[in-house]
Amino acid sequence: MDYDLIIIGSGPGGYVAAIRAAQLKMKVAVVERAEIGGICLNWGCIPTKSLLKSAQVFDYLTHASDYGIEISGEVKPDFKAIISRSRSVAEGMSKGVQFLFKKNNIVHLKGFGRLSGNGIVEVEDTDGKKESYSAKNIILATGARSKELSNLKQDGKKIIGYREAMTLDKQPGSMVVVGSGAIGSEFANFYQSLGTNVTLVEFLPRIVPNEDEEVSKQLERSFKKIKMKVMTDSSVETVDTSKEKCLVTVKTPKGIEIIETDIVLSAVGISTNLEGIGLEQAGVKIENGKVTVDDYYRTSVPGIYAIGDIVHGPALAHVASAEGIICVEKIAGVEVEPLDYSNIPGCTYTTPEIASCGLTEAAAKEAGYDIKVGKFPFSASGKASAGGSKEGFIKLIFDSAYGELLGAHMIGANVTELIAEIVVARKLETTAHELIKSVHPHPTMSEAIMEAAAAAYGEVIHL
């Protein structure tokens, strides 16, 4: 065999799995036709956070007087410079992963990889030249792409996906964002913050529909505060791109509304990259557009594994990384336990940020739990007041019988950093009493976790 392990795809699942496998003394190759690091590092998680940081800095400058600072002259965004910085950040991170490949003696096979039977991976380069490589084990980590609806076909100019949204030549005066999940909400927030007139359209009754209902309501209030138009229970029926501006027909509870806009951003989800990688020929089982795997990511074919967006579970970078590590450790004979999908944190990097883990209040009730709910608003937090970020709250849900922490839902400044405390607490089966009695530093945003736990049991101090 040429390699102990070949991984097809170098995203946060693939490259992390490769590095861990190399640490476990495997001879590893990674097939990647585009940039090392995959979509997340190059066109998703990292560059979008760069864009959002620029928007946040712009917001600080335009509200400098709130902090006792006067700025003379007009403050305005340099859109091209913001985009350029974002691309530079992504390129730097990609180079970092390339360095880790060299450090760990991981071979990059550049091209499109597909299964070719009996532990063989065929790699086709951009010129059409094909080479075959053998491996004892193969991991599929091909990720996903922007989903296209039949009535919302992306042309890359007027109807765009997330990749184009990160590299536009100029800032649009107006934009309709279709879909209010993490991707849609983050881009809507970014463009509105820079001065684009954004309309956010969501098919379901509330934005960020996977979050706790109170979190959804708070984000909608925050969006409307910055003059964003939010349309829920609404669907885009057609988009006419024949004229200079797009004419978007939106079906709302009150009837049809026509919106004139420069750009339509489709953020309606993702589609898995399963086409053309030889799954059918290899006999790898697929169900509902996902590769079927067991708890250790073994497919229906011995020696072939799959991780990340193409298997069950949330399509999140940190999930793919965790799956990759478990997968290669199992291959190497390390004693591992399956991933607990009930304790996965989710983050949305809007302003204010959103972070959550575990059951929502509604889901906990539906599951039959008798619950205690504690909520602490950041308006009562000294650190939030000092920082000028009083929007939002922390909400904790406990099982009344044992004090088990069933779920946590946060919206506010830096809550994407705070959620890790909850993940560790739930992993360690920490109870409400232990959270309340764990001394948190003052003044910090993290105090709100302790206060929310105390609120659930009638012991809150600062409310």
Number of strands: 24
Unreliable residue runs: none
Beta percentage is 25-35%
The level of helicity is 25-40%
What is the distance, rounded to the nearest whole angstrom, between the alpha carbons of the first and last residues?
65 Å
Give the oligomer, counting copies of the same chain as homo and different chains as hetero.
single chain
The average pLDDT score comes to: 96
> How does the major sheet shape up?
7 strands, mixed
Structural class label: alpha/beta
Anisotropy-based shape: globular
Gyration radius from CA atoms, angstroms: 24 Å
State the helix count. Answer: 14
Summarize the topology:
Layout: E1 3-8, H1 14-23, E2 28-32, H2 38-43, H3 45-62, H4 79-103, E3 107-110, E4 112-115, E5 120-124, E6 130-140, E7 144-146, E8 159-160, H5 162-165, E9 174-178, H6 182-194, E10 197-201, H7 213-225, E11 229-231, E12 235-240, E13 246-252, E14 255-261, E15 263-266, E16 270-272, H8 279-282, E17 286-287, E18 290-291, E19 304-306, H9 317-331, E20 346-348, E21 353-358, H10 361-366, E22 371-377, H11 382-387, E23 393-399, E24 405-412, H12 415-427, H13 432-437, H14 447-456
Parallel strand pairs: 1-2, 1-6, 2-3, 6-19, 8-15, 9-10, 9-15, 10-11
Antiparallel strand pairs: 4-5, 5-6, 7-16, 12-13, 13-14, 17-18, 20-21, 21-24, 22-23, 23-24
